[in-house]
Amino acid sequence: DTFASKVAAVEEPTADAAIGNVTGSNSVNVFLGLGLPWAIASVYWASTGQTEEWRGKYPELKYKYPDGGFAVIAGDLVFSVIIFSACSCTALGVICYRRYAFQAELGGPRGVKISTSIFFVLLWAYYVGIASWKVLNPDASTESQVVAVCVGAAGILVGMVLITGAITLCGHRQTANKTRAKDDIKRALMEHEKRVGNLKGAVMQAHRQQAMGLVSDV
Question: What element of type H or E holds 24?
Answer without folding.
Answer: helix 16-31
